[in-house]
Specification:
The protein is an alpha/beta fold and 334 residues long. Helix content is 42%, strand content 12%. The longest helix has 17 residues, at 126-142. One of its GO terms (cellular component) is cytoplasm.
Amino acid sequence: MPRVSYSSSSPADAASSSISSLRLGLRKCPSESIFPIYAMENARPNSMSRAILDSAGDPIWEAVRVEAKSEAENEPILSSFLYASVLSHDCLERALCFVLANRLQNPTLLATQLMDIFDDVMMSDTNIRRSIRLDAQAFKDRDPACAQYSWALLYLKGYHSLQSYRIAHVLWNRGRKVLALALQSRISEVFAVDIHPAARIGEGILLDHGTGLVIGETAVVGNWVSLMQGVTLGGTGKEHGDRHPKIGQGALIGAGATILGNIVVGEGAMIAAGSLVLKDVPPHSMAVGNPAKIVGFSEDEDPSFTMKHDARKDYFEHVAACKRTNGCIYNEKK
């Protein structure tokens, strides 16, 4: 399979890079109903940024405020927390900065200092401002345990660790590598999620649970990807250079899956829970086992949206039968 070039530092720029063979970057969302406002004109990143940030309203932020007000009334013991975290702020960015700073603070990284750093990054970077909304939408739509947008903002460490990584990634690319690494260390301590700040991750991402997730320095994760807990995107030794996996957009990586080396998991592929992947995985295929084998193909929907990853044998046999009927035979390497 062709290798992937993902040289840009931001999700939007990365999405438009030259990666036609696997289309890792931004494309039209399978269903605009999934991202009703934020998917507008997403084939053109600059237009998308303007559509989001210059629109008259901010539906996700408005929903977060309504939810926080309701929760404060229903649970008075949390009213002060909800006011400080949500209702006292004028935008989603500053509310998120407050939440993350208070989660990540320690005697070295004070909350007030982190607030200033996070605010500077978020308010000056349109790519992050879009990504935090697309990610929130992904959590709300794909995680049945996330019933409200405010729950992602306030309580879900998968969302917190992802947005903290985004800030560290910007700092890394601005040359503040020591601070980015300090943040990475703190994120790992607090959330049990270890993402190198140089890794490149698209938008509309779901980190479900997050616990035990490891993403290496040269890894690339395309847009609309869903990763379950315990996933490792790692290298195979101590070599330098480009040494980590490239995950195509719309892919679903099941719990505990380990993907090692500079290999490509194609667009819309599904890696079953507990699998060990050491070779390229074709687009829209399903890989299962240790070592992983290709057991079927499906092009109907991106698995990251359907979140169907039980990898039952009867399901794969059904898919294989359908493919043979349609004249599309796949060859499994024994």
